[in-house]
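name: query_chain
kind: protein
chains: 1
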Amino acid sequence: MSAETFHRFRLQTAILHKITQMLRASQLSFAPKAQKVIFIGHSSASVTGNAIATHYPTDFDAMLLTGYSYELVTAGVGLLLTLVQPVQIQNPAKFGSFPLGYLAFGSRKGKRNSYYAADGSFSPALEQWDFEHQDTITIGQIYSAFSGLQRADAFTGDVLALTGQEVAFFCGPTGTRALGPQSCGKGDASIPARTSTFYKNARFEYYLAPNTSHATTLHYSTPDSIREAHQFLARRGY
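structure:
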């Protein structure tokens, strides 16, 4: 199956829905029957969770959606500045055998400007390691994933939108720090807070990680973000 086909958004949604059904029905040989199912996603995976909550609203009891909001700015500029390219060119030793359709970032600076906040908010050594050990994205993932940004009015579970306060792709305004500061806004007027309109019948909370961009768990704010996620689940009885 090609990268374009396998990573199309609707197929990923259907696969995760099926796995969740099997998990609840004790049909997975490697896992016990699940009494509660908590979905955790980041970026496009959070959008996939959004879509499952829209189309299969009883699949999950709770969702932790990181690097996400209900709004996707024009991320094309940010992606272009990462010099996204075929993986066979970016790292032939690692990805030379991959079929066409798989992509990786060619510019460390470009990725840093779209995934990280200002210098001093993260470890440069970790940022370098992140770039040098990056995995792949696909053409199908890029052109189809964000179709999942939809209202999930029938979902009645718990939702935490945990997002960096300076997320370039989901808040902007331009998708990259190379073109100026990026900001999600502040407090209840922020874009992540207004994401509650997608989950009007859910128990919705948001958390803005300060001095943090799209690489949510690769900034110095990470311990506080993880603590907030656990506290959210505890508040909701999980």
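note: Residues 42 and 91 are 24 Å apart (CA to CA).
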